[in-house]
Design goal:
By secondary structure, the chain is mainly α. 77% of the residues lie in helices and 0% in strands. The termini are far apart.
Length: 403
């Protein structure tokens, strides 16, 4: 019985194998006809890809060659339309470029028989590599195109392909890493895409190459630091901020985040140290000077804080936060005195400090009415202690609104 079943199975195989081979040959012939006519090329491409999905066809060179030729024809047609400024989907053109790269790279391993113990000299490598090298800039251009459309995931794939080609056997001898000046810039843009996607693996994949793009190194350092932040690796995040700040003290990213980190830790001495380093790079910076005043305020070095802020107001009398720091410098002194055992003379001094703080905080309130979390509590305390009934009632009303 088993022998009969085996015979039947063999009979079916012998009957259907020729049919399958015939069908395959017919698909290849049809694809060639479409290629020759230059029509329905996407249909021809799909047909060849369908054949390659069958593991039995993966090493069939004829299918791969037809697929590659179909893709080349699509690229040529699209390129011609763009050159003649005819209506054509730009995204589709770049998509064909990427598919050619990916397909020919896959075919190269088949052509060289890398899947066998005895690889051979590939027949199509030189021809395909020459073609791909000539159109390679369009991988980079495709990446920038998709960045402009904010499709960062697709853009990343283009830059990643552009960079990876250096390591592919198909391009032996081209040495893109050292001979292609755009490689570091492609790595930067790949890093940018990863940063926009909040994908830390993509952000960091080409970091070392991106570091060679000296024109964008400040942003490379920013994206590196942000990746560590997303990964919740505080030690590496702070180190990246420190290194970035050391190289680019005037760059907007590093300084405020580094100061914020130490302020949150309660390390105001370190915050002041960083600010002084920043001022060495730019002594006129309003941001650096104001940040220093805040660090001094937090350290209780009130006179130094006030002196800096008075100079800032002299330069710009609409600088709201400078009024706030002066007001708080006097207010905090009053609070510190109030915590001590009070005498008549101390009470007088406390009230004097409240009176001095009041106009600065009122001006801050006027310039920054929405910043209630900064001016409401101090003014409430001041009006209460100075027995300013009308002003106190108004601030009390605002305080109750916040509850």
């Amino acid at each position: 019985m088993k022998r009969n079943n085996l015979k039947k199975t063999l009979l079916y195989i012998l009957m259907f194998c020729p049919l399958l081979v015939f069908a395959q040959k017919k698909q290849i012939a049809t694809a060639r006809d479409l290629l020759k006519a230059g029509k329905e090329l996407k249909k021809a491409e799909k047909s060849m890809r369908t054949l390659l999905e069958d593991s039995a066809n993966r090493t069939n060179t004829k299918i791969w060659v037809v697929l590659c030729d179909v893709l080349i024809k699509q690229y040529e047609q699209g390129n011609e339309k763009l050159y003649l400024k005819q209506k054509y989907d730009t995204a589709a053109f770049f998509s064909v470029t990427k598919r050619i790269y990916e397909t020919m790279a896959s075919f190269d391993s088949i052509d060289a028989r890398l899947y066998t113990p005895t690889p051979i000299r590939p027949k199509y490598r030189a021809r395909h590599a020459q073609l791909l090298n000539s159109i390679r800039p369009n991988l980079f251009n495709g990446g920038t195109y998709f960045i402009h459309t904010k499709d960062y995931n697709t853009a990343y794939d283009y830059f990643d392909n552009y960079i990876k080609s250096d390591k592919q056997s198909l391009f032996v001898g081209y040495d893109y890493e050292h001979k292609d000046a755009l490689m570091p810039h492609a790595a930067y843009w790949a890093m940018y895409c990863g940063y926009k996607l909040k994908d830390t693996e993509k952000t960091m994949r080409h970091l070392r190459l991106a570091e060679r793009d000296t024109s964008m190194l400040n942003f490379v350092r920013q994206y590196e630091a942000d990746a560590y932040l997303v990964q919740k690796d505080t030690a590496k995040y702070v180190k990246a901020l420190q290194e970035g700040f050391k190289e680019y003290p005037n760059f907007a990213f590093f300084f405020p985040r580094l100061v914020e980190y130490y302020v949150k830790k309660g390390d105001n001495e370190m915050a002041l140290h960083i600010t002084n380093k920043a001022l060495e790079a730019d002594s006129t910076s309003v941001l650096f000077r104001f940040t220093k005043s805040t660090a001094l305020l937090n350290l209780g070095r009130y006179k130094e804080c006030i002196d800096i802020c008075l100079q800032l107001i002299k330069e710009n009398d609409k600088f709201a936060d400078a009024y706030c720091n002066i007001g708080l410098a006097y207010f905090d002194q009053a609070i510190e005195l109030a915590k001590m055992q009070q005498s008549r003379s101390k009470r007088t001094k406390i009230n004097k400090l409240y009176e001095t703080a009041m106009p600065y905080l009122e001006q801050y309130k006027k310039l920054a009415p929405k910043a209630r979390d900064k001016w409401l509590a101090p003014l409430y305390t001041i009006y209460l202690n100075l027995n300013m009934g009308k002003e106190f009632d108004e601030i009390d009303r605002l305080r109750n609104e916040n509850k």
